[in-house]
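Worked Example 4.2. Consider the chain below.
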Amino acid sequence: MSTPLKYQLVEPQGKANGKTAIFIHGWPDNLEMWLPQAQRFAERGYRCASLGLPNYAGKVEKATGYNLEQVTDMIAETIKVINDGKPVLLIAHDWGALLSYMLDSRHTGLVEKMVTVDIGPGVKPKTASAVLLSAGYQLWNIFAFFWCFIPLIGPPIGSYMTYLVSKYFAGAPTLLPHVGNVGYLYFYLWKGMFTGKGGFHIRRYKPSVPLLYFYGARKPFHFHTDRFLALLDESSTCKAVKVDSGHWVHVARAQLFFDETIAFLENESL
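Applying the procedure from the previous section yields the following structure tokens:
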């Protein structure tokens, strides 16, 4: 049995609507990133829980981290604990989005509807510069992760490398005291490219539940493929929303994100 993740509950305020919404962050954030949105959902009657990925709370829980399948199973176990195994509404950004696609594939029946932000199940950069940017920041995070295994000097170097790429490449809205060990997911993803495991296979993913996908327009390249957008467009229960923002759509355009998400979740015809 997998170990449940740490999480923070936000109970419904006023009359509960009987729905549970699970929020999952990505790199380089932590569970606090989703709390402002979770509070708004709670005010509308949703029971909310923001999950924290391992090693993302500013301290090392496991130096080597976990592979994508293991983290996916931990998410599944957490959902069972929070909602007694009943289906939830899943809202996720970045790594949380990719892990949500894997959850839908590996643990059917745990998700009722899904909302993902700015990461599709696969990426296919269209220019040489996009390839270099995409590969470059991921490899930087992997090297930061490797530095953490060198005694004494390694961990602070790895952590500083993570800080630099978070601030100057990603432009994260909130800079958190992260350790370099947060790079483990990039390592296992790249490992999967050569083994056919570790989440790389999810690029062929097709949603089994209604899916709303947001992506920011103001970026040098997108973390999804044209095939994925076409797949959503052809579906009667899925939708892609292009937003005038960067990677953190739910932060930069918080009201639009909330309104579109509520309309999707409360559409009983889906």
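The beta strands are 6-10, 20-24, 47-52, 88-93, 111-117, 211-216, 238-243. The chain has a mean pLDDT of 94. Compare this with Example 4.1 before moving on.
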